[in-house]
């Protein structure tokens, strides 16, 4: 009898803490409904909803949280969602632990929960948000401090055959990866515009975004900022058991991780575009990592790498195994692979390693900027066949250049009645930074045509950016382009700039109207950036000596003779103190 009584008590004890399932009758519930019907599994205390045991949202039922509610979960508790779970708080709802030293498991979305979404939710001090064979949305949430070590999941957001949408979130200081899917699990989510930082508090050998195989839908990782703190944590990694049909990684900032992007394993297709991959060197050991991008294939890997800035890493791009990324092929009619990367200042052990081809295959890397316009210097920063005969050759020529079509007129040389210049003449153009001290980043020379008044200037040293165009001619005033500078994309579209169309095209309106065209001022023969007495003295001497010939500095109108016509023009500009105007 005593034993029977004990068994009854144990049964009653077990039933009092049993999981609660909603009835599955197609009802819309809220948190107060769970308090009313869950038999104590969800209670309300001091304004907080306490989840004391696991809750099951049954198929066809919906639970909505549309207030700024705080939900506190007991240790090991989770919500198992077969129906629909919606969080859409006006400011922010919160799921947290009743005891932050014990923590809870989290949210588990099952295969019929596709209508679910989480919006403006703080999810903290648990383990994970899991998705199994379902597609949900996680938007504008904060997911942090989820450090429970459990077989429930390893990542703060864990996907299993899921194509969920993960956007506009802050995901930080979680135990392992921020977002994870298994090596042989085909998930293709969209991960956009998230701040992902300082995850992997265990400092394990895991990246912040960790994926294996993907499904037939395109996986997208776009517009995220991914920064590290723990020295073993990488940025983005793919190691599939299976295939990766297509992944787009673009417009991300990936900075201060152990490595930037790692693509390993089987057959894959990646489009890696317009990312900033900077200073992924925090572990500091070049034998263990530090690549901006690492390709390490055991099967066919076809990747296009274009328009990225890859700098400050221990290695720029490293290629191993059977990987064969395309970093620029100008012979290809498909313009998605025309290079345009900026790969520079990546190195370790006192050497620059911007590209390391550790395969037997030739690699295309044309039309990129390598921090220098000198081909010999670029060659020294690329490790390939010339460094070891067993390696494949990297085709890195031509080097990328920024192009400027500049239309400009020199005052004294321009004849308004004929609408032409007296001769073709060489002009030097400098690209200067738009903030003090306005450093020169590049220079180029070109002839200005007598009829089109235009020259094409090629810049091979300046990375993409905003620059002042500074024109300098041997007997005119140095002239700067209008305030704010111009945007240059090296290797992209040609920048066209017309200094003849309006006075406002020059900084400080520093142009002179002749006929219908605006011109740069003539007369600065000593190039001290002003037309003054020193120029007049040189002019007087040359007139007295009867100097004549070709390209004489004091022959301002280029008629081959230094005479009073040149003197008159210089005198007029000196009288009004013509000089360079710059920021």
Architecture blueprint of SSEs:
Blueprint: H1 2-16, E1 20-21, E2 28-29, H2 31-37, E3 42-45, E4 48-51, E5 55-57, E6 62-65, E7 70-73, E8 78-81, E9 84-97, E10 106-109, E11 117-124, E12 128-132, E13 137-139, E14 142-144, E15 157-160, E16 165-167, E17 170-172, E18 179-181, E19 190-192, E20 195-197, E21 207-211, E22 219-222, E23 225-227, E24 234-238, E25 244-250, E26 253-255, E27 261-265, E28 268-273, E29 276-278, E30 291-306, E31 309-311, E32 315-323, E33 342-344, E34 347-348, E35 351-352, E36 355-357, E37 363-364, H3 375-380, E38 382-383, E39 394-395, E40 402-407, E41 414-415, E42 420-421, E43 425-433, E44 440-448, E45 454-459, E46 465-472, E47 479-480, E48 486-488, E49 495-498, E50 512-514, E51 517-519, H4 533-545, H5 564-575
Parallel strand pairs: 1-5, 2-6, 4-7, 5-8, 6-9, 7-9, 8-10, 9-11, 10-12, 11-13, 11-14, 12-15, 13-16, 14-17, 15-18, 16-19, 17-20, 18-21, 19-22, 20-23, 21-24, 22-25, 23-26, 24-27, 25-28, 26-29, 27-30, 28-30, 29-31, 30-32, 31-33, 32-36, 36-38, 37-39, 40-49
Antiparallel strand pairs: 3-4, 34-35, 40-45, 41-42, 43-44, 43-46, 46-47, 46-48, 50-51
């Amino acid at each position: 009898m005593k034993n029977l009584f004990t068994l009854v008590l144990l049964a009653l004890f077990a039933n009092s803490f049993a999981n609660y399932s909603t009835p599955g009758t197609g009802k819309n519930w809220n948190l107060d409904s769970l308090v009313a019907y869950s038999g104590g599994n969800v209670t309300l205390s001091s304004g907080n909803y306490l989840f004391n045991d696991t809750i099951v949202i049954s198929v066809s039922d919906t639970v909505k949280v549309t207030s700024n509610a705080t939900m506190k979960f007991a240790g090991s508790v989770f919500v198992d969602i077969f129906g629909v779970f919606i969080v859409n708080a006006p400011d922010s709802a919160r799921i947290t632990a009743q005891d932050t030293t014990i923590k809870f498991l989290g949210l588990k979305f099952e295969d019929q929960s596709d209508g679910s979404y989480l919006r403006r939710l703080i999810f903290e001090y648990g383990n994970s948000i899991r998705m199994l064979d379902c597609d949900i949305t996680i938007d504008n949430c904060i997911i942090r401090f989820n450090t429970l070590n459990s077989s429930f999941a390893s990542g703060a957001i864990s996907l299993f055959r899921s194509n969920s949408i993960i956007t506009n979130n802050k995901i930080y200081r979680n135990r392992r990866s921020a977002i994870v899917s298994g090596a042989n699990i085909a998930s293709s989510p969209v991960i956009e515009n998230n701040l992902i930082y300082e995850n992997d508090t265990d400092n394990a050998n895991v990246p912040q975004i960790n994926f294996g195989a993907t499904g037939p839908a395109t996986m997208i990782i776009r517009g995220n900022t991914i920064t590290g703190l723990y020295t073993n944590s990488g940025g983005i990694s793919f190691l599939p058991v299976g295939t990766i049909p297509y992944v787009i990684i673009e417009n991300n900032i990936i900075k201060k991780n152990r490595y930037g992007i790692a693509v390993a394993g089987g057959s894959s297709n990646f489009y890696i575009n317009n990312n900033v991959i900077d200073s992924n060197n925090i572990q500091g050991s070049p034998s263990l990592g530090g690549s901006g991008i690492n390709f390490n294939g055991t099967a066919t890997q076809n990747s296009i790498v274009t328009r990225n800035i890859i700098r400050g890493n221990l290695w720029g791009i490293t290629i191993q195994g059977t990987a064969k990324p395309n970093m620029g092929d100008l012979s290809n009619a498909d313009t998605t692979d025309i290079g345009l990367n900026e790969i520079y200042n990546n190195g370790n052990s006192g050497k620059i390693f911007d590209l390391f081809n550790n395969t037997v295959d030739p690699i295309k890397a044309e039309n990129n900027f390598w921090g220098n316009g000198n081909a010999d210097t670029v060659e020294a920063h690329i490790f390939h066949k010339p460094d070891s005969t067993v390696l494949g050759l990297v085709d890195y020529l031509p080097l990328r250049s920024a192009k400027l079509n500049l239309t400009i007129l020199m005052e004294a040389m321009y004849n308004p009645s004929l609408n032409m210049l007296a001769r073709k003449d060489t002009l030097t153009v400098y690209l200067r930074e738009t903030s003090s001290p306005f450093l020169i980043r590049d220079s180029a020379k070109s002839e200005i045509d007598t009829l089109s008044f235009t020259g094409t200037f090629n810049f091979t040293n300046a990375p993409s950016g905003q620059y002042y165009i500074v024109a300098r001619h041997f007997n005119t005033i140095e002239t700067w382009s209008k305030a704010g500078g111009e945007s240059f994309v090296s290797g992209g579209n040609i920048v066209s700039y017309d200094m003849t169309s309006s006075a406002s095209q020059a900084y400080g309106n520093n142009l002179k109207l002749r006929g219908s065209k605006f011109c740069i001022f003539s007369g600065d023969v000593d190039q001290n950036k002003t037309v003054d007495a020193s120029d007049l003295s040189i002019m007087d001497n040359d007139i007295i000596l009867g100097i004549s010939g070709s390209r004489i500095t004091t022959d301002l109108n280029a008629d081959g003779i230094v005479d009073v016509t040149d003197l008159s023009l210089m005198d007029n500009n000196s009288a009004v103190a013509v000089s360079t105007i710059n920021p």
